[in-house]
Amino acid sequence: MGSVCYQDVLQDLLILNEGHTVGYIPPYSDSMELEEKFNVTLRALFHAKQLQNWSLQLFCAYFLGKILEEEADPLSKQAYYAQRLMTYYRITSVRAYFLFKPFGPTKIMNLARTSLTTLRNLSTEEFQDLVTKSSLIFNGVENWEGSDVVSDYVTSLINVTDVINE
Fold first, then answer.
1. 47 pLDDT band (50/70/90 cuts)?
2. How many domains, in total, are found in the chain?
């Protein structure tokens, strides 16, 4: 596994968010109905696209993925909302959600290389591997944040995962 997109996402996942503890809120209110949450988030995503702000696009896609995966229940509702999206946005929003779920939206706003296109260009195997590594990286950082051993620990976890996946 080593496409340019894969390497870019992995590098972004490994960057610690030192001093960046801003609490980002979703583009919708929790009190909104599901339909309104979906529409507001989709409009925010398209607005970010018009502004050519790729980090804001990824941020909105993350919350769109969250709506599809957590709030659109039962599966019939999930399918209804998923069908309303172009395939590109359906895939990238779900990928953004699962990839950054351990970190939350703060991580997304501090990315240097990852965009919706980067996520779309990952193979299924690369994406699944990155989701696994995302959890490992998050758990390593959560347990030892601020320690010099963080990067060594995370690197060892990634190496172990690579060996397991071979």
1. very high
2. 1
